[in-house]
Design goal:
Blueprint (H helix, E strand, L loop, with lengths): L14 E5 L6 H12 L2 E2 L3 E2 L14 E2 L2 H9 L3 E7 L2 E6 H9 L4 E4 L2 H10 L4 E6 L3 H10 L5 H21 L4 E4 L3 H17 L1
Parallel strand pairs: 1-7, 1-8, 2-7, 3-4, 8-9
Antiparallel strand pairs: 3-6, 5-6
This protein binds guanosine-5'-monophosphate.
The site of guanosine-5'-monophosphate (5GP) has 14 residues, from β5, β6 and α4.
């Protein structure tokens, strides 16, 4: 390789950021891809209440607003963002440790967070999960049957805006369309494996 190549912050491929709007099946894809590759998964801190079945320290580190603010003040978070009225952030310690040890760690975070990670770790791998189209996304969101038509409209326009932002940022160097779940998982697994070789 030429010596003119920019020096990545930490071993390349150490960090894989996966983003995409809600409703594209991102969490399922991430869970399966992480399971198949055996890589580490970052556990975010959040002020959101746990959903049924979610475990503290496994799915998220559930904290209150005061604890979250302390973490930001003490510079414990690699990035953080407000998403749907709640705060979410990536604890920096485990990410730095993984990078130092040459391991791969996956971050399932939103586009605002992805852009922040790109500033600290420009050599990271960034994957954007996309719906097959706006109509398909609308159908998937409606399929949940938990929101009013107004809420659905708001979620859909937020999702489309997030995709627009992600593309504009120029940070996401991989796009995976979730048309078939198995295919999307295969592609993400391939990207994770490839990122470890570079
Ligand atoms: P949920 O509340 O459905 O688990 O997550 C909502 C959104 O927050 C998802 O898009 C998820 O990727 C994002 N998210 C989860 N953890 C973090 C984090 O640590 N930082 C940022 N920026 N976004 C996060």
């Amino acid at each position: 390789m030429s010596s003119e190549r920019p020096i990545p912050s930490g071993p390349p491929g150490g960090i894989v950021v996966i983003s995409g709007p809600s409703g594209v099946g991102k969490s399922t894809i991430v869970r399966q891809a992480v399971g198949q590759t055996g890589v580490e998964m970052s556990v975010s801190a959040t002020t959101r209440r746990p959903r049924p079945g979610e475990k503290d320290g496994v799915d998220y580190r559930f904290v209150d607003r005061e604890q979250f603010e302390r973490m930001t003040r003490q510079d414990e978070l690699l990035e953080w963002a407000k998403v749907f009225d709640n705060y979410y952030g990536t604890p920096a310690g485990p990410v730095r440790k993984a990078v130092e040890q040459g391991k791969t760690i996956v971050l399932n975070i939103d586009v605002q967070g992805g852009q922040q990670v790109a500033q600290t770790f420009p050599g990271a791998t960034f994957i954007l999960i996309l719906p097959p189209g706006e109509k398909a996304l609308a159908e998937r969101l409606a399929g949940r049957k938990t929101e009013t038509p107004e809420q659905l409209k708001a979620r859909l326009s937020k999702a489309m805006e997030e995709i627009r932002q992600a593309k504009l940022s120029g940070v996401y160097n991989h796009e995976v369309v979730n048309d078939s779940l198995a295919d999307a998982v295969r592609q993400v697994v391939g990207i994770i494996k490839e990122s470890r070789k570079t």
